[in-house]
Amino acid sequence: MDIKWLEDFLSLAQTRNFSRSAQERNVTQSALSRRIRALEAWVGADLVDRSTYPLVLTPAGKLFSNSAVEAIRLLNDARSLLRVESKDENMLSISAGHTLSLNFLPKWLATIEAQHGQLRTRVLPANVHDSVLSLVEGNCDLLLCYYHADLRIELDPARFECIKLGDEIVMPVSVPKRSGFAAFPLPGNRLAPTSHLAYTSGSFFARVVERIVARVDQPCFLANTYESDLAELLKTMALSGLGLAWLPESSIKRELTEGKLVAAGGEQWTMAMEIRLFRALDNRKPALQRLWDILKQ
Question: What mean pLDDT comes out for the span 173-184?
Fold first, then answer.
């Protein structure tokens, strides 16, 4: 059982439309549908009548919606109480993607601490959607994420501000052949598509790759042979010689230097992104303000 399922269901009960609720909940329509199905499986009854338009709640759905509203209210009240009781003004919680948590965050924190003293931090690795939601709902102090004009993080500038911390390049790589060239090069060909270690559909890096391929004025022939939403896992698969993968350059610097991985395509197959740090303006935690002042300098 996931509280997000309840929130999805209550949104659907209000909009009576999967498409509108998916937009409201910032998920794909297929993901929302799967979560509603999962909730129905947990309850043990159909909650939504999908044979009508607009859809309506079943009798079980109407009964359950009242319980869902009360359950969320009680949980939120308990969470607010516990937050007040356990609040540590000197601890900064940082929500970040898995790749940034592993490859950027430790070095960045070490640099800050070497110059300005030790920080008390708690790192919360999560996907982009959950990280943004964590910041919006006040479950973390800072959001560390990638940013690109085509892949915007939609946060109200009246409520949130950000600082650019660095740059990142996402590039296609594979193991080399004896000649030194990529064993799995781009763009591939129709008769022999290039083996592609792909990101799970809907994940942030999957959207990055989609935009790279779409903007290149050249046909690209890829055969997805493996999928994961974790860049580090695709890196391991690429090092095993199982195909081409688009990876953040910061995560493969050593492998590129040592020649274990090589570029599988030219610059047109890459994307430059920024690394940004977001905070809520109404978060008055002293430790957060001190860090923000340091970063602004």
Answer: 95
